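Fig. S4 source data, part A: sequence.
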Amino acid sequence: MRLRHPYRWALGAVLAVVVALTVGVAVAHPSADPGGGSPGDAATSLAPSSGREQVPDFTGIVRWINSPPLTRAELRGKVVLIDFWTFSCVNCTRTIPHLRALYDAYRARGLVIVGVHSPEFDFEKDPGNVAAAVRRLGVTWPVAVDSAMATWNALSNEYWPAEYLVDRSGRIAYFHAGEGEYDATERAVVALLGGGATEAPAVPAAAPGSTITPELYAGSDRGGLGDGERYGAQGAAVDYPDRGAPSARDQITVAGPWADHGEYLEAAGPGRVRLRFHASDVYVVAGSAAARLTVGVSLDGAPAGGVAVAGPDLRHVLHGVAAGDHVVDLTVPAGLRLYTFTFG
């Protein structure tokens, strides 16, 4: 799960399953049922009908994908799941198969999913980039391109991903931030639609969680460098010494010439990026302002392939890494823009 304010990351991990979370519409959103139970337990996940507030209308949307523009009034009478996401967020993209299963199982009974794409980085504000990601990720439900964060702000949302479930009267009945709790979300959908669930749960369960390296940002806006290194003036290249494999975990270390641009670091010449991590999968958000680049990848000193980088996007660097701490080492050419590492 990503938070709008990175200094609240640790708190956000706890708030993902909070008992009550107040958003800008002043609704106390109850936690999803923590597991087990049956469709009849969904009532414990829903806000009391008398306490539900109207969801704000979609506002400031610069483009609709897979749908003509939608309004709160047009959706009245439907059960609507509003999914806040952004395409470079691995936590968001991992929810898509679960949303697809929910959509396929219940759309004929009145469920509508509306994805609200609210960007974290500037390149995610481009509607063309969003449309390309929608096609690539197989998102078939309506997507509202919220590049100015107007709908995000109308709900005072702070999380990627975040799910707001709206009843047939247009009132917020359920909220969940982050990945997981898919069974509870399905039970809440079934309760609002009325009637029983499918014979078997439609939504695939999530894999058990574990303690993994948190998201690490490269640029000075939200990140920090390991080995005691400091950022230079924005746009000015700094030549960082090569200190080899880092001893400390969960810190981005760089070698060679790099220039800080706030949202990202850009390689001003050939360089290295290393970090010690604990996870089975490593992802990177990276891009290039010019030509297609190839980034070399090694794991614990052994070659582990390469990653092609062109336009800025989320890319899968390592998959199925054995348990324990490991060091990933990227060999990068000039022009690479490094935004963030995420892990799974």
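Fig. S4 source data, part B ends here. The CA atoms of residues 111 and 244 lie 53 Å apart.
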